Amino acid sequence: MKLLKIEWLKLKGHPFFWIGLGLYAACMILLVSKAGGIEWRVDDPDNEAGQKLLNFGEAGFYKLPYIWQNVTYLAGYFKFIPAFLLIFFVSNEYQYRTYRQNIIDGLSIGEFYTSKLISAFIFSVISVLIIGVNAGIMAILYNESASAADYFQNMDYLLAYFAEVLFLMLLALFLTFLFKRSTITVIIILLYYFIVEPLAGLAIGDPISDYLPTRPSREMITQPFTRMLRLDVAFKIKSPETFSYHFLLLTFLYTVILGFGGWWILKRRDL
Amino acid sequence: MEKVLKTQALTKRYGSLTAVNELELEVPKGSVFGILGPNGSGKTTTLGMVLGVTRPTSGNFEWFGGKPSFEVKQKVGALLETPNFYPYLSAIDNLKIIATIKEVKDPDIEGVLQTVNLAQRASSKFKTYSLGMKQRLAIAAALLSHPEVLVLDEPTNGLDPEGIAEIRSMILDIAKRGITVILASHLLYEIEKVCTHVVVLRKGHLIFQGKVDELTGHDGFIEIKAADMNKLETVLQSMAGIENIRKKDGLLVLALQQQISPEEINRSLAEKGIYVSHLHFRKNSLEKQFLNLIKTTENETA
Ligand SMILES: Nc1ncnc2c1ncn2[C@@H]1O[C@H](COP(=O)(O)OP(=O)(O)OP(=O)(O)O)[C@@H](O)[C@H]1O
Ligand SMILES: [Mg+2]
B3-215: CATH homologous superfamily? Predict the structure, then answer.
């Protein structure tokens, strides 16, 4: 409670916290509400000669129970926004030397670390809330005759999404404690996530590459478009019914490892 | 006398550099305790270790006769090197965070800000403060938990003369309330103005520990020599007005209190049948004495 209060005092006073989250929320609202308008060229069975334009909305983007997968998958690309906010706030503690002052004033290193885990948790919860409420509203608008049970079916995609975001938060936290500065941390995390690990994955080959740190979190929620656009039927492949629990477990495992990793870094060095 | 802080063989090495070497300190309760040393002598490193932010390579320290703990941190208000606050927050919000960390019930934020003359700027953001205001806010923060000890590392660094005077009188006021103050500085006259006790550090070594007047209180030195050095020493030891006697290069060096003049010493020695073969009076500036202290030990260790 004490640690939560301290984090809250630190966060709420910074304009970036509100501006960052406001922009993030606005982005997500735009993303979710406009995604239905994305158009896609499909073969038109009624018209021998040509194709027709189909948009995501018509293709069932907002239909229960698939909406949960559709939205969490798309939102997954924007999870870096809260991660950057977290990197910014934690590296500030180094830049302002307030980390050291907090310890002098009475926090133990463990308490300080815990307070940052709380921050990571808060950012993840906020992200899930924004996405969840957004998807929920769109679900209500587009599914008039749905029952409560229909809403809950596949809602566990939100849990998977939470695990995905929390993993990235812990990765961000770990790297921030390692490098202490926001710019380098942001560069490294992007390089690693989008270049280093995918290349390493290619080099290692498929079954093992699934066990690289960020792989489970990004493969957990599979892309929904094959099914949405009926391509699975066309190409005779089977779309998974739900997200991979195997990957969920691995994501969680890596999150815990990163959690201990950050603690290990902090304990070993001078402030 | 009760000790607030005690270090035993406290040592910090950075690679091959020994920043603090087997330091033995004892800070008496109620003192204004100066840690004096030139730049890089290990003052900040020493304070960092006892404040729990620098890991000692070896050695121990005790606060109030016990291990460091949260209760100790509540009793110790400290400022290390620079005032560290959240620049985007006001003084009040910064102090709220510190009060939460220190678990101060009903923190008297207004009161401590008044003590350091910042009440008028209480809701301005920290980043808009001048250096002097930042230093004063740091002192306010340290006072928030009604500490028994206040640790200040170069609190007047970079301030103008007015700011320096303000901080000094503040330190003296705080000391008058019975709070033990530990003050690191590289300025002898600063230590002399506010401290009761002092240690002098050079390259991580302790080269002097004692009361401030032992270091600075006398008016000058007399170097003295006689045929019978032993008898000379015994006689001088029984003489009033002499602070201390040191042997150096076959001479005796007397640190004098103000009330005794070289003529008086010469006359009383003659009365006892001792005729000096060398008598030299040096009236040193304080700064020079400090430099001398550092130099003599340099020669001794070399
Ligand atoms: N993190 C560090 N890594 C390596 N060397 C360090 C580190 N911190 C301090 N030192 C070295 O330790 C020695 C003592 O430094 P310290 O900061 O304690 O001196 P100081 O007495 O506080 O000096 P100043 O008056 O300049 O503040 C210096 O030689 C310094 O270069
Ligand atoms: Mg220093």
Answer: P-loop containing nucleotide triphosphate hydrolases (3.40.50.300)
